[in-house]
């Protein structure tokens, strides 16, 4: 992310990227401490450090494009436009949440915003994305689907079957591998001999690309190119976005398996700080602009938490509804 | 009216639904390859000539194309996905159980998954892995409707109802009932043809069918076992025992109205199931009957099912595995004592 | 508002958690996410972060004291937002 690249774009666009990334970070941090306080039910899988992948990819999509997500879906949802309030209500198990309190953290989604409820079985959302791409192609609509999954999912059969079918039918699907180097606690080097997950694309006869997943503009530009290829009928594409989770796999994880120096290195290169440092090299952006965004986002999340905490719970009668259409 | 086999009736039903609604498409292995068989049992034979863009042959990847079907369905398409053998559903189990059945609930009712799944089951000389009666793995899966068709009339009507339903519907079909012809004909096939009326009709997905009326005992079966139950009932009539024969047809949910009316009349129930006895569909049905109608029962519900073994190959063993009319008759005799 | 900060679930496989060191003194300002104390479990020594921003009012478990998940370890006065 050079100072030249940053000059290509409008200020508002760039600050928008910063705001959405910081919204994800602040949302995740607040939620983390709500869990530690013990006031939020269930479990969580968080994405601090991976904000640039969600924001970069989703910014390249239109409102009527779709995403599928994983057990770690908060960032994807916020980046696609699902409201922090409806998500926090859902996390607190409220009936007015984005899934009426029936989904919870691992199944966050909102089809009106172009996000299917997140699929929490590793790799399970990948064939769905292929099917969504098939529907777009059969209906001759220009829509595209981006399917997020981690490095761990590329060992699943569902990854192979889903990506292969998208390839043979030229479907408009961007396969987005967020390679954070750990499937839960197991390092990616222990589960594949490949040095580069994008190399798997060759096995399906499609284009693959490895991108710095902590550089939001690099992710955005790679996603934009991939999305355009898909709209032009030249898809699918496999994007590997290298990033790092600077929080636990789930709420009870102290990350003892991440070497300290590795963790520190990535923390120093976390995407929000890195983007902020480049942003202020522009003549028309200063630290005060960023501080203003951060404090506004903090207020947004604080008031969303208040709404979330006070939202009505489902009634027991709700247990039996929404099973069948 | 014209006489049709189940395979022909399904084919006609699929073609009519595809003509009626452009969102309907077929997806599966070898379903529309020119020079091929139209699926394993000729159901989709020739449909690619009518609908060249909506007959999708897939790689051999059941988990993949069932997931693809779910994804297409949530985006407004109406896929009809079939497996060559019901056993292969197990390869797609995660997509069916975790995604097709649950997406509506976990989305708080904002997503619907209108997809049809078709699966041939039954022991037919192929050994253990192309023979299981896999209904048991889907009955008791909230979010999925399960039916089993034993006549051509029902096959067409239920297929059409399933396509129009906004939920995932699993249709079980039996290899010995298709009436497939030529090289795809099955040895030991049973006639399941029906007179198919002209014009559109559907058969509800939640109603059992009374195939024969009698007041002494209720015999419940589905698929091939519905036919064998009817055959056993004819033999019993010759000795003066009159049986109600119910084709359960809808396996999830069960039609306890129809079943209950019969149980109240006869007070005696025999359930016939192809497949291991332990943990089978008949276990659930027997428990459901006992919970609801125990006051009417003159004796405990009796199950006639396969032993708890994989499906064997040798004809003599396979015949011993599959419930048959003599075993059904013996069970009724035991109940009438 | 005063927040009673409880020992978070650290994913340990033992019940006892020993306080090794307090990194903040009573009366000091703390920020959410700032390391408050070090503890020792079966797994390792690790830091416990403050859930909230405010002033540390009370330390409830002294150095070398033993506590368990869910027990109050500190009281922090926060300004309402």
Describe the structure.
The complex is a heterotrimer of chains A (325), B (337) and C (81). Chain A is an alpha/beta fold and 325 residues long. Chain A has a single domain, classed as 3-Layer(aba) Sandwich (Rossmann fold), CATH 3.40.50.970. Chain A is 43% helix and 10% strand. In chain A, helix 2 runs antiparallel to helix 4 (74-80). The termini of chain A are far apart. Chain B is of the alpha/beta class and 337 residues long. In chain B, 34% of the residues lie in helices and 19% in strands. In chain B, the strands form 3 sheets. In chain B, strands 3-2-4-5-7-6-12 form a 7-stranded mixed sheet, with helices on both faces. A 5-stranded mixed sheet of chain B has the order 9-11-10-13-14, with helices on both faces. Chain B has a two-stranded antiparallel ribbon with strand order 1-8. In chain B, strand 13 (269-276), helix 9 and strand 14 form a beta-alpha-beta unit. In chain B, helix 1 packs parallel to helix 6 and helix 3 packs parallel to helix 4 (93-100). Chain C has 81 residues and is mainly β. Chain C is built from no helices and 8 strands. Chain C has strands at residues 2-6, 17-22, 29-30, 35-40, 45-49, 54-59, 66-67, 72-77. In chain C, strands 1-8-6-3 form a 4-stranded antiparallel sheet, with no helix packed on it. The radius of gyration of chain C is 12 Å and the shape is elongated. The model of chain C has no long low-confidence stretch (mean pLDDT 87). Classes of the chains: A alpha/beta (325), B alpha/beta (337), C mainly beta (81). At the A-B interface, helix 6 and helix 7 of A face helix 3, helix 4 and helix 5 of B.
As laid out across the biggest beta sheet of chain A, the strand order is 1-2-3-7-6
Query: What is the CATH third-level topology name of the largest domain in chain B?
Result: Rossmann fold
Number of helices of chain A: 11
SS summary, helix count of chain B: 11
Taking pLDDT < 50 over at least 5 consecutive residues as the criterion, the unreliable ranges of chain A are none
Strand content of chain B: 15-25%
The class by helix and strand makeup of chain A works out as alpha/beta
Strand order of the largest sheet of chain B: 3-2-4-5-7-6-12
If you consult CATH, what is the topology of chain A? Answer: Rossmann fold
Averaged pLDDT of chain B, please? 96
State the assembly state of the protein chains: heterotrimer
Work out the number of β strands of chain B.
14
Distance between the termini of chain A: 48 Å
Domain count of chain A: the total is 1
Coarse shape of chain A: globular
Query: How do the SSEs of chain A run, as a string of H and E?
Result: HHHEHHHEHEEEEHEHHH
């Amino acid at each position: 992310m050079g100072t030249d690249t940053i000059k290509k774009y409008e200020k508002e666009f760039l600050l928008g990227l910063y705001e959405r990334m910081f919204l994800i970070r602040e949302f995740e941090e607040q939620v983390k401490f709500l869990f530690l306080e013990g006031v939020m039910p269930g479990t969580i899988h968080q994405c601090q450090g991976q904000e640039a992948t969600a924001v970069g990819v989703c910014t390249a999509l239109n409102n009527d494009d779709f995403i599928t997500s994983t057990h770690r879906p908060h960032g994807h949802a916020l980046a696609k436009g699902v409201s922090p309030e409806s998500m926090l209500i859902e996390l607190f198990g409220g009936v007015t949440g984005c899934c009426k309190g029936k989904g919870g953290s691992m199944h966050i989604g909102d089809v009106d915003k172009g996000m299917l409820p997140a699929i929490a079985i590793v790799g399970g959302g990948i064939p769905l994305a292929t099917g969504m791409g098939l529907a777009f192609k059969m209906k001759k609509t220009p829509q595209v689907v981006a399917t997020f999954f981690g490095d761990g999912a590329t060992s699943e059969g569902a990854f192979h079957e889903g990506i292969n079918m998208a390839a043979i039918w030229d479907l408009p699907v961007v396969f987005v591998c967020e390679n954070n180097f750990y499937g839960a606690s197991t390092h990616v080097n222990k589960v594949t001999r490949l040095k580069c997950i994008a190399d798997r694309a060759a096995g399906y006869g499609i284009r693959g690309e490895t991108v710095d997943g902590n550089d939001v503009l690099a992710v955005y530009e790679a996603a934009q190119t991939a999305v355009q290829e898909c709209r032009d009928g030249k898809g699918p594409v496999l994007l590997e976005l290298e990033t790092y989770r600077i929080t636990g796999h789930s709420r009870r994880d102290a990350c003892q398996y991440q070497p300290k120096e590795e963790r520190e290195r990535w923390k120093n290169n976390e995407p929000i700080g890195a983007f902020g440092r480049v942003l202020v090299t522009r003549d028309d952006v200063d630290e005060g602009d960023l501080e203003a965004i951060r404090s506004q986002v903090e207020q947004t999340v604080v008031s969303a938490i208040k709404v979330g905490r006070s939202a009505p719970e489902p009634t027991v009668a709700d247990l039996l509804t929404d099973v069948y259409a | 009216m014209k006489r049709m086999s189940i395979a022909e009736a399904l084919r006609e039903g699929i073609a009519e639904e595809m003509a009626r609604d452009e969102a309907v498409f077929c997806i599966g292995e070898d379903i529309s390859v020119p020079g091929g068989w139209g699926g394993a049992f000729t159901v989709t034979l020739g449909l690619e000539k009518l609908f060249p863009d909506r007959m999708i042959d897939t790689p051999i990847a059941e988990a993949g194309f069932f997931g693809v079907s779910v994804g297409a369905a949530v985006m407004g398409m109406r896929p009809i996905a079939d497996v060559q053998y019901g056993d292969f559903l197990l390869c797609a189990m995660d997509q069916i159980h975790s995604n097709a059945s649950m997406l509506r609930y976990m989305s708080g009712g904002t997503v619907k998954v209108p997809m049809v799944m078709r699966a041939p089951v039954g022991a037919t000389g192929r050994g253990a892995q192309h023979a299981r009666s896999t209904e048991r793995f889907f009955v008791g899966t909230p979010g999925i409707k399960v039916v089993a068709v034993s006549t051509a009339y029902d096959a067409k009507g239920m297929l059409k109802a399933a396509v129009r339903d906004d939920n995932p519907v699993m249709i079980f079909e039996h290899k010995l009932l298709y009436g497939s012809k030529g090289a795809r004909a099955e040895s030991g096939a049973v006639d399941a043809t029906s007179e198919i009326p002209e014009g559109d009709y559907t058969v509800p997905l939640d109603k059992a069918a009374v195939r024969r009326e009698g007041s002494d005992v209720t015999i419940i079966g589905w698929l091939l076992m519905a036919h064998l139950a009817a055959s056993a009932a004819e033999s019993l009539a010759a000795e003066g025992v009159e049986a109600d024969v119910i084709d359960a047809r809808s396996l999830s949910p069960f039609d306890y109205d129809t079943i209950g009316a019969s149980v109240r009349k006869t007070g005696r129930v025999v359930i016939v199931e192809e497949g291991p006895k332990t943990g089978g569909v008949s276990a659930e049905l027997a428990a459901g009957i006992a919970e609801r109608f125990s006051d009417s029962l003159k004796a405990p519900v009796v199950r006639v099912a396969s032993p708890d073994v994989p499906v064997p190959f040798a004809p003599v063993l396979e015949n011993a595995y599959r419930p048959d009319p003599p075993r059904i008759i013996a069970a009724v005799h035991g109940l009438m004592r | 508002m005063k927040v009673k900060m409880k020992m978070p679930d650290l994913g340990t496989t033992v019940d006892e958690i020993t306080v090794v060191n307090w990194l903040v003194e009573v009366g000091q300002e703390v920020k959410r996410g700032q390391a408050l104390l070090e503890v020792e479990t079966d797994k390792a020594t690790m830091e416990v972060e403050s859930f909230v921003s405010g002033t540390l009012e009370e330390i409830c478990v002294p150095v070398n004291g033993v506590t368990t998940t869910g027990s109050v370890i500190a009281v922090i006065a926060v300004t309402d937002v």
